[in-house]
Write a structure and sequence with these properties.
Blueprint lengths: L17 E4 L3 E4 L10 H13 L6 E3 L18 H28 L7 E3 L2 E4 L2 E5 L37 H5 L15 E5 L8 E5 L9 E5 L2 E6 L2 H14 E4 L10 H10 L4 E7 L7 E9 L11 E7 L2 E6 L4 H12 L6 E5 L11 H12 L7 E4 L2 H7 L6 E9 L5 E10 L52 E8 L15 H18 L4 H6 L5 H14 L10 E9 L6 E10 L3 E11 L6 H20 L28 E6 L15 H16 L10 H6 L1
Parallel strand pairs: 2-3, 7-17, 15-16, 19-20, 23-24
Antiparallel strand pairs: 1-2, 4-5, 5-6, 7-10, 8-11, 9-10, 12-20, 13-18, 14-15, 14-17, 18-19, 21-22, 22-23
Helix pairs in contact: 1-2, 9-13, 12-13
Amino acid sequence: MHRLPGNLQTNRRLSQWLAIHPEGRVTVTPGKVELGQGILTTLSQIAAEELEVDLARIEARPAATPDSPDEGVTSGSLSTQDSGGALRHACAAARAIFLGVVAQRVGVPVETIRIEDGRFIGPAGEIGSYWALADQALLECEAPAEVKPRAPGERRVAGRSVPRIDLPDKVFGVARYVHDLRLPGMLHGRMVRPPARGARLFALREGPLPGDAQVVRDGSFLAVLADTEWDAEAAAARLAARAEWAAADTLPEQAVLADWLREAAARGERSPVASRTDPAPPVARTLSRSFHRPYLAHASIAPSCAVARWEGERVEVFTHSQGPYNLRADLAKVLRCDPALLTVRHREGAGCYGHNGADDVALDAVLAARAAPGRPVRMLWSRTEELGWSPFSPAMLVDIEADLDAAGDLAGWRSHIVSNGHSSRPGRDPEPTLLSASMLAAPFPVKPSINPAMAAGGGAPRNGVPLYRIPAMRVETTRLLEMPIRTSALRGLGATLNIWSIESIMDEAAALAGADPLDYRLRHLEDARAAAVLRRVAELAGWAGRGRREGFGMGLGFARYKNTGAYAAVIAEVEALERVFCRRLWIAGDVGEAVNPDGVLNQLEGGAIHGASVALLEEVRFDRRSITSDHWEGYPILRFSEVPQVELALIDRPEEPFLGAGEASMAPAIAAIAGGITEALGIRPRQLPFTPENLARA
């Protein structure tokens, strides 16, 4: 069977991707979802370009099972690459099919027909349109292997900045989010969570509840339903006071978390990630350094929410899950039913790069709705649940030994990356991974999180292999099978630690060699596109002519995301007085073809600001039983007043394949901030976040 681009390979029928309507509209139905990253705008541009119609004619519908193609999870900065590539091919095929039919009917060569906003113009004038052929079922076929997308020089819509199609509703307060969904007869649900990880509900005292609130219990799964949110909130509070739990200490001591990681790794097995044994010059010096980061939360601004309804044997779910088909698979496992009985519809929620509570709250809504057949149930998590019970990005540790030759250049590299797995997303294991599945009377086990294969970018070892030229190298990882806190994917996965640690070694080696950090990187790079973004960001920030001010410093960070994705170089200016602030960021990026350049710049800027927040503030805190940073004061994120001034440059390469932008700049920003701290204070940070307490330890 011929190979098709992107996710068209596994969703081969053209009608899965688009429909053309007689009234002059085009519907595209990608399986990727809008998370606030603007992907539906980008995909609409690609469709409009290939069909040669006005962008206003394109309607991008949210993903839903079973109508949309199954594109897995919207993650990994792969949406434009995998979905955009598929949609470009599908729309180019559709254009060729329609033109072929018209040419045959009219008797003119296909190459003599041009398209003007969906109308077909032949040598003697208009000869038809998409709309006139819309009822002919021409797209009920498999995509052909060979089609000819429009050449870069012909593009008029793709490659141009256009306004995001999802923003007007959000700006003007239209009810667009799943949180806003209101259905007739809807009940409101709230969960009652245990006081500790792994706690078991063994008693529940009876008593009155507000209004008509009802209790839903299945083992240690405890929820309330009520006609109003206020009654649901009050009922949940009363129920929590009546619940008795069996709990025990299950979490490590936070103060010695790095030691716990090292001890747990000693009980595990090392797995090779990459190795190289090219001839190397004699070693003059070896740098041995360790870097550590804590657990990180997604900290979505709005808590997770879902709406579910049971009608007989069928269940309908509205969710902001990143993978509707994957969620459907796990819901079916919990319910022990045929997935075809479940319909999962995507509705936008609070932005989240990674696996937060969206999937978990969907199961909560479904289990609660089972107790109220025929009535929709809106389940909304609290802030405490969102910050305390969503999956976290795992704490990590990396030990690095870098050999330097007599000239100070890198001669060897050995690193060991320690972490829990970085994915417990639903749909990928024979048993469900959703939170409440482990709390039922017949519970499912909580298994250790996995790491994606390195061919897919890896998890803990993502970007753990330096892109720089190093003759001898050995990179290993240990995936911890002890998992006291449930972990999963957060923007960048292991790259946030690995890129920062690699770039820190590069800075230290450059200083020992008496070289400028930029020049030192360039002399170790063989990738011309990597060198180009470094030179561009240096030009943007005035790196060569930078001055020095007391308490201020500038640092540089670079990476190619997953070593196969987008390139990003970041320079940060930090102010390091009573605490560290990032005051300015300069970013240069290369994502290959940029379909919506403004959208790409937004992603690079947002990723770097996210990186600044992680670098300076973020850390999940816990005691021996529970998460204690379950409120904004306990888990601070960057405030608007603390957001740095950002300046960006994009190296557009329209002839190159798409490379996603969503995660490329985050880790380089962390590395750049660390470098700025070193220039300002003379301290090389070894532990995230870069708080005064952690810097004092350094």
